[in-house]
Amino acid sequence: MHALDVAGPEVQRSVALCAARRACDAAGLTDVGWVAPALTALAQGHPLPAPFDDDDQMWETLRSAPLVPGPTVLGAMPPERPPYFPPPPAGWTWVPATEPRDDGATRYELDRLPGSRAPMVSAFLLVYPGTPDVRGPISQPYFALPAVLAAAEPDPLKAALDAVWHALHTHGEHYPELLKEIWALCSGRARR
């Protein structure tokens, strides 16, 4: 997000267009007769043609279009990260409490390091087990079309951020491939 912010409007537009194209590629929509003109309009900086100029019509067109289903993907799942612990005061460390909790959380308390004469401190943290939000197989076209709409936003930064968000979800579990391409666009043409 920060790289996109400093990259400037030209790169932001390039990222928005790339995200919309990659979302449509992933969803198998790039060569669909009513989607291709929208991607061309985006590339040329023109307003989106019908049915993209009317949300209801766009969704109705998608619902009634005979599309070949693409590969099944699961929802985008960020990598698991360990819980965050704020830096402890000098002479102290975080340790799990000895008593279990009924709600599944782990309680961490400050414990004085061996040999430390640090003044007494009292603090605790509760770390709840994460429940991943993994969507089952997703309908890629239903995520891809909003990427096209987002890429047409007048504000280039908003267009890029929203188009990338929709493209990430369109790619589902394969989102790291998309992020590599987006990162290359941002880092290769950032304002100096």
Could you explain the architecture of this structure?
The protein is mainly α and 192 residues long. It folds into two domains: 130 residues, no CATH class; 36 residues, no CATH class. The radius of gyration is 23 Å and the shape is elongated.
Short key terms for the protein model shown above:
single chain; 192 residues; mainly alpha; three-stranded antiparallel sheet; 3 strands; elongated
Structure summarized in a few sentences:
This protein has helices at 2-7, 9-27, 36-44, 55-64, 140-151, 156-171, 175-188; strands spanning 92-96, 106-112, 124-127.
Largest sheet: 3 strands, antiparallel
Q: How many individual helices?
A: 7
Beta-strand content bin = 5-15%
Average predicted confidence as pLDDT: 83
Secondary-structure class: mainly alpha
Order of helices and strands: HHHHEEEHHH
Distance between the termini: 17 Å
* Relative helix content: 40-55%
Q: Order of strands across the biggest sheet?
A: 1-2-3
Which consecutive residue ranges, at least 5 long each, have pLDDT under 50? Answer: none
Radius of gyration equals 23 Å
- β-strand number: 3
Number of domains: 2
What general outline do the C-alpha atoms trace? elongated
